[in-house]
Amino acid sequence: MSEATGPSSISDFHESLRSRSTTVEQVVSSYLERMALSRSLCAYLSEFAGQSLERARELDECLSREGLDRLLERSPLFGVPVAIKDNIHVRGERTTCASRFLENYRAPFDATCVARLRDSGAVFLGKTNLDEFAMGGSGENSAFGPTAHPLQKERVPGGSSSGSAVAVAADLALAALGSDTGGSIRLPASFCGIAGLKPTYGRVSRFGLVAFGSSLDQVGPMARNVSDLAGIYRAIEGHDPRDATSARIAPSGSGPSLSSEGRPLRIGVPAEFFVEGLDPEVKSTIDRVLERLRASGATLVPLSLPNLVHSIPVYYVIATAEASSNLSRYDGVRFGVRSEAAMQAESLEAFYEEARALFGREVKRRILLGSFVLSAGYHDAYYRKACQVRRLIAEEFTRAFEQVDVIAGPVAPGTAFRRGALERSPLQMYLNDLYTIPANLAGLPALSVPIGADSTGLPIGLQLIGRPFDENGLLQAGLDVEALR
Ligand code: GLN
Q1: Nearest-CA residue for atom 5 of ligand 1
Q2: Does the global pTM surpass 0.90?
Q3: Domain CATH number, residue 68
Q4: Among the atoms of ligand 1, which is closest to the Cα of residue 429?
Q5: Could you give the number of structural domains in the chain?
Q6: Residue pLDDT, tens place only, 425-450
Q7: Is 184 a catalytic residue?
Q8: Most buried in the list 26, 272, 389, 469, measured by CB within 10 Å?
Q9: Buried b (16+ CB within 10 A) or exposed e, 461-471
């Protein structure tokens, strides 16, 4: 027997296990049924039907032996059905990165974040769709078909973690993992009306995440509310010796939060976040929320971060440079599909040309751009310059955080746009990342929390950016915003 809808939160789910009104197996099988009925959304690229049910039955046995509360002490995510973005390794399963190139690639090991979720008791439902190699902001760049918005099918769900956002929003998973290089967790979370967190760079291990822009990439949780986000985040955070950029810093655990410091929250509001091009409905919704936060005791501090205007060019130089270097390993020999045409090639050059023809348009564009900005003669003018300006942006944030606890603004200039609307203009597409990119460039934690909808019912998110490694404070501020609703 299955239910038409899943639990509304992790605590709701655990409550129903505690009261024995359901079992892990029943909940997992109802997710699997909804997934099978919702394939037109193209949220999942693979579904783990057999193994997730088997795992659910094992967990139900543990439950009957030990009781939930004892299990939760060592497995805080006991039984929680989770979806994983298909650029993160789950041992033995495919990791396609939504690319023809890796269509047949199977992961030989678990990503650290996946192993940690497993140890915390989570059940994996499947792997979710994305823009190819996480390059994109709409969910349209997948080689296996665009992900649809759950509310209005002709709209995009946002990307690149499109399938993870849709899985959570359409009740096809209780929570999900995404990755965020320039906004890929926060943008789709905001378009789909769910919560998403990009942790501080170095906070969550990147081991087992397929690299895009290595100095920017972070794995993070996507969920229905901020408490669930915190629950998933706590399971995956912490130092990992297998990722050289993983921070050696104590996990945030359940340490003190901003509000418990007894000081009213100081919220920075940068002028550069409320510029021309911001949808008036998004702006007025954010203004209302900020006003209510002020009324409930927070201080609003106007800020100016003048270097933010350079974020997009800086990001698209650095991210493409790193991508061109990271993707050079896909040479047609070592990973993934061996193209027939390549095997017939008569020279090495022709071999690469055929092999790499399997990449989609956007991936090729990034490789070309990245190789250009790194090439002799242009390296100093583009790549080095971009790294310098990145530093200035980070320093501006450091100064701002002397005055404020969090910084608030939009996640995106508008709500979910129509599919195909920006197809012909990569630049227009890149402009959507205006508000999310700065946190990646500065390595700061940032989250998107739902605050309302526009007049057509499309969700609007608020972005909050925190101090480095202050995920606790950031999540607490997210809870405060959520409590206003
Ligand atoms: N939209 C941005 C890009 O296309 C960000 C992608 C991401 O965060 N993975 O690069």
Answers
A1: 182
A2: yes
A3: 3.90.1300.10
A4: 1
A5: 1
A6: 899 999 999 999 999 999 999 999 99
A7: yes
A8: 469
A9: bbbbbbbbbbb
